[in-house]
Design goal:
Blueprint lengths: L12 H11 L16 E5 L2 E4 L4 E4 L2 H4 L8 H11 L13 H13 L6 E5 L2 H18 L7 E5 L8 H5 L19 E3 L9 H13 L5 E6 L3 E2 L5 E2 L2 H14 L2 E5 L13 H4 L6 E4 L11 E5 L1 H8 L16 H16 L2 H16 L8 E7 L2 E6 L5 H10 L2 E2 L6 E4 L7 H25 L1
Parallel strand pairs: 3-15, 5-6, 5-7, 7-10, 10-11
Antiparallel strand pairs: 1-2, 2-3, 4-12, 8-9, 11-12, 13-14, 14-16
Length: 442
């Protein structure tokens, strides 16, 4: 007997939300979620259209990925053209033009010393691959005892096994797994952006003291630590880490999944610091947020060393590696990035965020305000009331997704000054709501 699946049918937004709550598990949430998800009907430009008819500004660029907004016509055209030819083919023993085109463009945007690309289907997996590269590289050199990764606290690198192990083990989102994950090596969190040379040099000396005979590589998020706390640090620290890695024979891994493609005001944070990592991870904005794709890029000498070792090659192979459809969209996206409109848009957004958020530092509910590039962060003294914050920002026509003590925004680069102002007004309203909650608790 042939199974008959339920037919798609239109429901009102409340029915959809109810079905979602009963059957669909959302990220970093219990089941069912404590706060119902808001159904989205469409997304275009900077706006999300909710199923109940409200249109709200996507102040998150949908987790920092939709850097040029939603439904960019050139990305849609690339997807339509590619899907009519070939949506997917295995990458084992086969290749295709979209992968070659994307690789050529990606390497052109990166430093010339980086010339080998390994594709995967998510940012977390790209970090998984980077860590595996570093460990397999040391093994191929006859140094199997070098099997640990050194990083600094306050970091976040993804939710799969190896990336979880290099997230902050105590204050991060994966502290539950302490004792289960591979124990890595942790230095203190980096000093904040704007620290003086003495502070930076003292920190780097302490960081270097954490290296031992088991250290294989260093991994950090350059300039901006993302979901681990949205903290910013100085470019000079990256220069110091490059020097430390060179002197100790370690690989330097840069996780630019969040910072790449202009988000901080520079194309890549490592390049702005004047250094080249041995391995760099990119994702999120790689396809302009159109679909999932990530890449781990390294130097030919590292690839050749790994390939000459016991494994005979990198022992990894995602099923959807270099998916042609995703590669075609990413290739079109890198054309937009290369044209460079973001070089004017990001500083403009930064100015708007500074103008709209800086004064919130005087609120009794606020610990600190930080702005860099198209990133604005308001850190509160205590965890935000998610239900209250969500209701407030939606009432102001903005979608934000605070976490912990952080209310933050990463607007699409196409956001106008008015859009940025409205985002800031929504954040200010959340802060006022927290002030009232704080007063009520006293």
């Amino acid at each position: 007997m042939t199974a008959v699946l339920p037919s798609p049918h239109h429901t009102d937004s409340s029915a959809l939300a109810a079905y979602d709550a009963e059957h669909i598990w959302h990220p970093y949430a219990p089941m069912p979620a404590a706060i119902p998800a808001h159904p989205v009907h469409a997304a275009r430009g900077v706006y999300l259209t909710l199923a109940d008819g409200r249109r709200v500004i996507d102040g998150m660029s949908s987790w920092w990925a939709a850097c040029h907004g939603h439904g960019h016509p050139r990305l849609r055209d690339a997807a339509h053209q590619q899907i009519d030819t070939m949506s997917h083919v295995m990458f084992g023993g086969l290749t295709h033009q979209p992968a070659a085109d994307l690789t050529r463009k990606l390497l052109h945007l990166l430093n010339d010393e980086l010339d080998v690309v390994f594709y995967s289907d998510s940012g977390s997996v790209s970090v998984e691959v980077a860590i595996k590269m570093a460990l397999q590289y040391q093994h191929a050199l006859g140094r199997p005892e070098k099997n640990r990764i050194l990083t600094w606290r306050g970091g976040y690198h993804g939710d799969t096994q190896a990336p979880m192990s290099v997230c902050d083990p105590d204050g991060g989102m994966h502290s539950l797994w302490k004792g289960t994950l591979t124990p890595q090596q942790f230095a203190p969190a980096p000093p904040p952006r704007g620290s003086g040379p003495l502070t930076r040099n003292t920190y780097l000396a302490h960081f270097e003291s954490c290296i031992d005979e088991h250290t294989a590589a260093i991994i950090v998020e350059p300039v901006v630590q993302g979901a681990g706390g949205m903290n910013f640090h100085d470019h000079e620290l990256l220069v110091g880490l490059r020097d430390i890695a060179d002197r100790h024979g370690l690989l330097l891994i840069a996780d630019e999944i969040a910072t790449g493609f202009g988000r901080t005001g520079d194309l890549f944070a490592t390049a702005a610091a004047g250094i080249t990592p041995d391995i760099i991870c990119v994702g999120k904005a790689l396809t302009g947020g159109f679909m999932s794709l990530a890449a781990t890029v390294t130097k030919r000498t590292i690839a050749e060393t790994i390939s000459g070792g016991a494994g005979g090659g990198l022992m990894h192979g995602p099923t959807f590696m270099a998916n042609p459809l995703a590669c075609a969209v990413a290739s079109a996206n890198l054309d937009i990035v290369a044209e460079g409109a973001w070089r004017e848009d990001v500083p403009r957004i930064e100015s708007g965020l500074l103008a709209g958020l800086t004064h919130l530092g005087g609120s009794p509910a606020v610990s600190q305000v930080r702005v860099l590039g198209a990133i604005g962060v308001v850190e509160l003294h205590r965890p935000v009331d998610m239900a209250l914050a969500t209701e407030i920002c939606l009432n102001h026509g903005v979608w934000l997704r605070p976490f912990g003590t952080l209310v933050y925004t990463m607007p699409p680069y196409i956001a106008t000054d008015q859009h940025v102002a409205e985002i800031c007004q929504a954040i200010e309203a959340i802060v006022h709501g927290e002030e009232q909650r704080r007063e009520g608790a006293q």
